[in-house]
Amino acid sequence: MLESVKLVSLATAVPPHGLAQRDVAAAAHRAFGARFGDFERLAKVFETSGIIQRYAVRPLEWYFEPLGWPERSAAYTAGAVALFEDVANKALAAAGLQARDVDTVVTVSSTGIATPSIEARAAGRIGFRADIERVPVFGLGCAGGVCGLSIAARLAQARPGSVVLLVAVELCSLAFRLDTLTKANIVATALFGDGAAACVLRTGAGGIAAIEMSGQHMWPDTLDIMGWAIDAEGFGVIFDRAIPPFAEAHMAPAVSAILERAGIGLGDVDRLAFHPGGKKVVSALERAFALAPGVLDHERAILAAYGNMSAPTALFVLERLIAAGLPARTVLTAMGPGFTSACVSLQRAA
């Protein structure tokens, strides 16, 4: 019988530059107001998004300068490495471990390109062993934190006793674009923030929770719902206005099917936890799963304080749930490009 994998620790981190939503809204008005005829109507998203503050890898003024691939890539590499070190050290300290104890590191990031990858750039300073196994993962977007937790758990189970470190780091703010006059770009400017989360996993006794099961569901013919459009200036966001109604119509059946493969019903789950992609998405998920309005309080609190950080955001929600007292069984879910739903079920450690 396979040993269960334990979530030993979880930590989060954000970059140093706090962005008040009102300041971003004012800057966006200066940048887009005179050039985008529909801006005044779209600008309401800054007020209705449910976001109060976010964090960014660069000061606000930097984003409203002319930027191309070289500038964005340099900011990504420096910022992602710094966040990786910060959050990895926090997670390892919480687990009573050091970097040299890590056998495998899974790095999830979809907001920049770096070769060598982020964990390789951080390895010398953080103190990883020379024989560490590296698993960089790109392209999972907002589902990356949950998918990464699943990947890390499977790797830990494959080698009982080994220490697996998961780090999800995203610098979504680097997709802010002055040259793109679209609704999707305005929404991204109102929604995205930067952040990182890290988990330590291994088999054996103790820990915060056991990783009970995981799974994914991918819908056909949905590639245009979410993703990146890549051009000479950098990443440009693809957001379909249908995301909230799509979540309301399709998420519950998909999650139910994933859980049923492990013999779990929705009625067996004490807390469904979600990646808060946006205020409308959170409300749509409450309706989809017949939850009382306002039940997803931790999701709304994370969105208000940090914005949508893509992959790490679901792990920020999980950290908040742990601090409040993790229920007996929690199912953490997220949606991402593909279009995909990912789930991980956690059972609270005795």
Show the helix and strand layout.
Layout lengths: L4 E9 L3 E4 H12 L6 H4 L2 H4 L4 E4 L12 H26 L9 E5 L9 H9 L6 E5 L6 H15 L5 E8 L11 H9 L2 E10 L5 E10 L7 E6 L2 E6 L3 H18 L10 E4 L4 H10 L8 H10 L6 H13 L3 E8 L3 E9 L2
Parallel strand pairs: 4-5, 4-6, 11-12
Antiparallel strand pairs: 1-7, 1-8, 2-3, 6-7, 8-13, 9-10, 12-13
Number of domains: 2
**Helical stretch tally:** 11
> Based on DSSP secondary structure assignment, what is the total number of beta strands?
13
Enumerate the strands of the largest sheet in spatial order, edge to edge or round the barrel. Answer: 5-4-6-7-1-8-13-12-11
What does this structure look like?
- The structure is a single chain.
- The protein folds into two domains: 5-203, Thiolase/Chalcone synthase (Peroxisomal Thiolase, Chain A, domain 1, 3-Layer(aba) Sandwich); 209-348, 3-Layer(aba) Sandwich (Peroxisomal Thiolase, Chain A, domain 1).
- 37% of the residues lie in helices and 25% in strands.
- The chain contains eleven helices and 13 strands.
- Helix 4 (69-94) crosses helix 5 (118-126) and helix 8 packs across helix 9.
- The longest helix is centred in the N-terminal third of the chain and has 26 residues, at 69-94.
